[in-house]
């Protein structure tokens, strides 16, 4: 019988290897200390390579931030970012004038399209106690006809994201969070209108799966048998997939058209699943731009230098919102969303 596992790779340090239509996947897991008056860490930054701090000293990183951790204003064109915040907060600002604060289970889905500049800062809003921050950022490609779509973001608030619980014959539970796609009739909130995931036949799915110690659960087949499906075993002691036991964290490319039995061996296990029908077009990437040809990459640089993708309407590259501000999104048209508390 043919194995449902097509390929395995050691998980390693992020960014993790992805398959078309995905471009990039990174897992940020930082154990930030208490925050100071500027929403940065109440800790010495001596010895850190500020502006390029990715070493994980003391269990956390400043990334490109110099006062507040995160990623100050930077451009994108030609793809989408999908940001799943499992813990902590992100302060978003962009060249369209939109802003947001989201986290604690929320997902932001941003179509960069023709071009956008945005910042993603991690405000440490708690004083006197730690500010753990954990998130996935995933890049999803756009087909050629949508690479110049108008920039747009959708907020998928935590209370609207399906979370399904399954119990096996031994009473052990598996919980599945559906950030994109559909499981047992429960569909994630819609992505932006020009997303590859908005097409009904692409079968894009982004799920996190947590199995209790000893739990078993069967991952159902994809709706589109052409979809690529990749499992990222990133947390736990050991994972059994079909008849194979993996005792080290792995990336597993698996058949999408068959049901796949998962089992947490030892302690609890967590898996990220990325799935989607491949776009099947040439990919040329240079830094923050992903296009189909080298000429389009050069044009992206020229356009950014000429227009700054709309400019930057903020007084600093790394804006953050006031400590007391709750979760919200202010869109470019002025519309304001606030999730139910």
Descriptive report:
The protein is 4% helix and 42% strand. It is mainly β. The protein folds into two domains: 175 residues, Jelly Rolls (Sandwich), CATH 2.60.120.10; 121 residues, Jelly Rolls, CATH 2.60.120. It contains one helix and 26 strands. The longest helix has 14 residues. A seven-stranded antiparallel sheet has the order 1-20-17-22-15-12-11, with no helix packed on it. It has a six-stranded antiparallel sheet with strand order 3-8-5-6-25-26, with no helix packed on it. A five-stranded antiparallel sheet has the order 2-9-4-7-10, with no helix packed on it.
Explain briefly what this protein structure is:
The chain has 341 residues and is mainly beta. 4% of the residues lie in helices and 42% in strands. The longest helix has 14 residues, at 294-307.
What characteristic shape results from the CA principal axes? globular
Number of domains: 2
Largest sheet: 7 strands, antiparallel
Number of helices: 1
Give the CATH class of the largest domain.
Mainly Beta
Tell me what portion of residues adopts beta-strand conformation: 35-45%
List keywords for this structure.
Jelly Rolls, six-stranded antiparallel sheet, Pirin, 341 residues, mainly beta, globular, seven-stranded antiparallel sheet, 4% helix, 42% strand, Pirin_C_dom, RmlC_Cupin_sf
């Amino acid at each position: 019988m043919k194995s449902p596992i097509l390929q395995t790779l050691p998980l390693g340090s992020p960014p993790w290897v992805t398959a078309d239509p995905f471009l990039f996947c990174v897992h940020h897991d930082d154990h930030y200390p208490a925050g100071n008056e500027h929403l940065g860490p109440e800790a010495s930054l001596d010895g850190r390579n500020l502006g390029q701090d990715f070493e994980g000293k003391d269990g956390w990183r400043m990334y490109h931030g110099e006062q507040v951790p995160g990623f100050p204003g930077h451009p994108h064109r030609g793809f989408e970012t999908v940001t799943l915040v499992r813990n902590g907060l992100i302060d978003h600002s962009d060249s369209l004038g939109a802003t947001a604060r989201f986290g604690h289970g929320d997902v932001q889905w941003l179509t960069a399209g023709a071009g956008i500049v945005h910042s993603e800062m991690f405000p440490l809003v708690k004083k006197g106690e730690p500010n753990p921050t954990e998130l996935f950022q995933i890049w999803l490609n756009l087909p050629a006809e949508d690479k110049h779509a108008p920039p747009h973001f959708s907020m998928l608030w935590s209370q609207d994201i399906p979370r399904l619980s399954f119990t096996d014959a031994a009473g052990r539970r598996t919980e599945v969070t559906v950030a994109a796609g559909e499981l047992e009739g429960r569909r994630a909130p819609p992505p932006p209108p020009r997303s590859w995931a908005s097409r009904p036949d692409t079968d894009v799915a982004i799920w996190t799966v947590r199995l209790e110690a000893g739990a078993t659960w069967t991952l159902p087949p994809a709706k589109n048998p052409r979809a690529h499906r990749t499992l990222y075993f990133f947390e736990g002691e050991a994972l059994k997939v079909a008849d194979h036991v993996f005792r080290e964290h792995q990336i597993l490319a698996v058949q999408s058209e068959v049901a796949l039995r998962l089992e947490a061996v030892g302690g609890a296990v967590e898996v990220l699943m990325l799935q989607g029908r491949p776009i099947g077009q040439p990919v040329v990437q240079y830094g923050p731009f992903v296009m189909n040809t080298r000429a389009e990459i050069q044009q992206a640089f020229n356009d950014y230098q000429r227009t700054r993708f709309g400019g930057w309407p903020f007084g600093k590259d790394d804006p953050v919102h006031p400590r007391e501000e709750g979760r919200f999104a202010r869109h470019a048209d002025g519309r304001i969303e606030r999730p139910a508390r």
